[in-house]
Design a protein that fits this description.
- The chain has about 325 residues and is α/β, with parallel strands linked by helices.
- It folds into 2 domains: about 110 residues, Rossmann fold (3-Layer(aba) Sandwich), CATH 3.40.50; about 180 residues, Rossmann fold.
- It has 8 helices and 14 strands.
- The strands form 3 sheets. A 7-stranded parallel β-sheet has the order 10-9-8-11-12-13-14, sandwiched between helices. The protein has a 5-stranded parallel β-sheet with strand order 2-1-3-6-7, covered by helices on one side. It has a two-stranded antiparallel ribbon with strand order 4-5.
- The relative contact order is 0.15.
């Protein structure tokens, strides 16, 4: 049985993945990076986007006649979910011990940074003693989260435990204890109107592309802040830049962008109320994600449902 690694991360995963597969009893497998070698023997493909000459490589899966599943190394699968040659199950990465915890920590850090207005002190080392400027406590601050899936839900739960008033929105109806969950167009408008800090953790689909645009950004309260750790194309850049320059949006903390790396000439770099981080909010740790992949392969071999099955029609 061949397991094809269609990713430039093979050198990082080779040893860990082999060890995890052997540890849980998967035998007679071969990890390979040769896409044209004995295609009929390939049962599983481990995938992440790769680029050549600055453009993403579009993969053709049609010739792998015995392919059981494609397993993504990332939680985001928008670049492959619409691939017409993909006729087998697609499994996205759900790594609660690694990736999910990374996202919780990153969102928590920047939510607290904005809530406490820490930048005022870090950037304001000018000799002025500003002791009278004090932030509200967490229970007096409303945080909205767009996206209540495998990443959004745990972030929402964690922020609620700290004490924030948390409102969540998703395309379909969700229920999370102690969190007001809304859905649909009217639910979206409600969450936007109350969010002093808005966190984006949605998947990128036709319905969510540019969900923050000229019209929807107007709904946010004046002096609100945005944190985007989902996908760059959830936000219409020009619309956000206008709101940042006008002062309607106080701050934007952005980890993902429509083009990555972000161009050196992009306005986000020079706007004083924008914080750019280089797509690091939810890194995929090799050790924990190798365990996830190995267990999913074993489950698929045994006819069990893997964790992270993608609904190809919905796009996530």
């Amino acid at each position: 049985m061949k397991i094809l690694f269609l990713s430039d991360l093979f050198t990082y995963y080779k040893e860990s993945l082999c060890n995890e597969l052997l540890k849980i009893g998967v035998k007679n497998f071969e990890l390979t990076t040769e896409p044209n070698n004995l295609k009929n023997d390939v049962r599983f493909i481990i995938y992440s986007p790769t680029q050549k000459k600055g453009k993403k490589v579009k993969r053709d899966f049609s010739s792998y006649n015995n392919l059981k599943a494609v397993l993504s190394l990332y939680a985001g699968i928008e670049d492959i979910v619409g691939n017409e040659t993909l006729k087998c199950p697609l499994i996205k990465m759900i790594d609660n011990d690694g990736l999910t915890n990374s996202m919780i920590e990153w969102c928590l850090a920047h939510t607290l940074r904005l809530h406490l207005d820490i930048d005022r002190h870090i950037l304001g080392q000018d000799g002025l003693w500003r002791q009278k400027i004090k932030p509200p406590i967490a229970k007096e601050r409303t945080v909205g989260i767009l996206g209540l899936g495998t990443l959004g839900k745990p972030v929402a739960v964690f922020l609620k435990k700290i004490g924030f008033k948390v409102f969540g929105w998703s395309r379909t109806k969700k229920k999370i204890e102690h969190i007001k969950c809304l859905h649909g167009p009217e639910g979206l408008k409600y969450v936007l109107r109350v969010s002093e800090i808005l966190i984006l953790l949605l998947p990128l689909t036709h319905e969510t592309r540019f969900i923050l645009n000229d019209e929807s950004l107007k709904l946010l309260p004046k002096n609100s802040s945005i944190i985007n750790a989902g996908r760059g194309e959830l936000i219409k850049d020009n619309a956000l830049i206008k709101k940042l320059r006008s002062g309607h949006i106080k701050n934007a903390t952005l980890d993902v962008f429509q083009q990555e790396p972000l161009s050196k000439k992009h306005p986000y770099w020079i706007l004083p109320n924008v914080t750019v981080t280089p797509h690091i909010a939810a890194d995929t740790p090799v050790e924990s994600s190798a365990k996830v992949i190995a267990n999913n392969i074993k489950n698929l071999i045994e006819g069990k449902l893997p964790n992270g099955m993608v609904d190809l029609k919905r796009g996530y």
